[in-house]
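User: Round two. Same drill as before: sequence, then structure, for each protein.

Assistant: Same drill it is. First protein:
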Amino acid sequence: MHDRMPQSANLKRLSVLFYNLCIHLWRGEIDYLLKRLEAVARYYRFFLHKCPFCGTRFNRFLNKCNGYALLACPHCSLAYVAPSPAHSELDRIYSSAGYYEETIWGGGMTAQSYEDAMRGREWLLREIQFDRYEKRLGEEKRMLEIGSFDGSHLQLFKNRGWQVEGLEIVASIAQKAINRGIITYTKRLEDEHLQRARYDFVTMNHTLEHIHNPGIVMREVWGILKPSGRLIIQVPQEKPSYQPGGQHLLFFTAESMKRLLILSGFEVLALISKQHYNVNVKMDWIELNAYVEKRAA
């Protein structure tokens, strides 16, 4: 009997140790779950945002930057800022005195060097053999540039024989294009209610990354193009990062741009990445150029 008592005591000690171990493990799991729930509660509002292009919810969280979330849609692959600034906030930013002078002509760029830069963009037209499409259209060919700034880019196409029109929401900048004799609309594309199947060609030169409703805009672009009409989109290919000021709201890779265009009803004819040098900040950057054709509905 005396031999069995130490064994009983040891079993009791082992039972207590096992019980305490279970309690610690249980508490650890609870602490872990609580921390996860806390993280979900902190970021739930980001997960519930709809993708601005396709409307999918529960998008992947990439990062937090200056109080905004950077999300990626699992369906269309678009990376974007959430919550997106309101139209009124963007209007205030883009209409502020000196905004375009600082962002376009800042760092020593002059009106002449800007004109030279616009002429330099003709490399893309050569790369995609755009002249073949022009010749098919004959004399009567009409184009629209969305985000046409002061009309410098449109002037290139006017010189090539195109009937050109622009859309620029900042009235003071649009007036510069109007002074060139270029028809320029000053409402957002979705508010202008332009004629369906009006244009042979539409271009968006570093505009799409500023738009917080790309799904609506791309549907409008598809609608105003003629059957088999062409579209060129140029955007920076950059790491998602939001800076106060509302410049870039959408971020693209070649893969996400291709998917967005296919889902919008276009056939991708060319997708070209080109490295440039930014004289303002003295650094290289990559531009993504998409050339597409409208598919039948």
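Second protein:
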Amino acid sequence: MGSYIAKRIIQAGALLLLVSLVAYAIMNLAPGGPLAVYLHNPQVTPERIDLLRHQLGLDRPWYVQYAAWLRGLAGGHWGDSYYTGRPVLEMIAERLPATITLMLSAFVLAMALAFPIGALAATHKYSWGDNVLSFGSFFVWAMPAFWFGLMLQMTFAVRWHLLPVAGMHEIGNTSAGDLLRHLVMPAAVLGVGSVASWSRYLRSGMLEVLGQDYVRTAFAKGLPRRRVLNRHVLRNSLIPIVTIMGLDLSVLFSGAVITESIFGWPGLGRLFLAALNNRDYPLQMAGLMISAALLVFGNLLADLTYAALDPRIRYE
């Protein structure tokens, strides 16, 4: 197992290096650039723009800039923001706790809802309950996150005054209860898509396992239904959904960009969205690398979970 993990880490490093190279090349070859906002400002002379371009190192070829950025990344310095002048890692460290809180809450909420819904739909195949749950899953899957967020704000915040409209805390109130009230709606918006996806995969997996001979044998031997479902059906149905759950780590991170913008959540999503609007290359590269790293890590975590779920799987 140790050699397999080491091999996967080396492969992940090579993949992330390739992703960074392609992303940096596309970003720097795109028309405009971080100084485009000054080009049509009559108060900024071409000489000042050339000076600023030289100070930021933008007058060098993109591959030279990439090599400098890569050396800084290896040394723990992800560059300085073109827009604020602050170190990128410092800006990320300020926003990271809020995003982790939101992502973990959405992940836990998705697990808490998807597993009962998927199991209920599988054990009551083609019943009215299964049809209702299937329709709800497909509806939620196709529902735009920004629309759902606005509907929640209109209903629970504006009309019923049950929850705050946006933000992470009320001014002067940093209690856990206040954080939970602000967290309910953004976590629901971020996690609802995963609920729909995971419940459908779990339903399909359980239906396939329920048709296996060993499950019918277990029922024929008189084992309790709950024990058969928990020990034989559910566990053997988890491998497909584990794959989706691992890949959804990066999906949750990407979805946080929209969710945090809707609810004014002070996390990385809003930071990277502002970097995109300002063409802040160092911050954009940080966001791309974090998203790619989450995708690779989620895939590795899913592979390792396979061995825990199915003893027949061995990694050499």
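The chain is about 75% helix and 0% strand.

User: Perfect.
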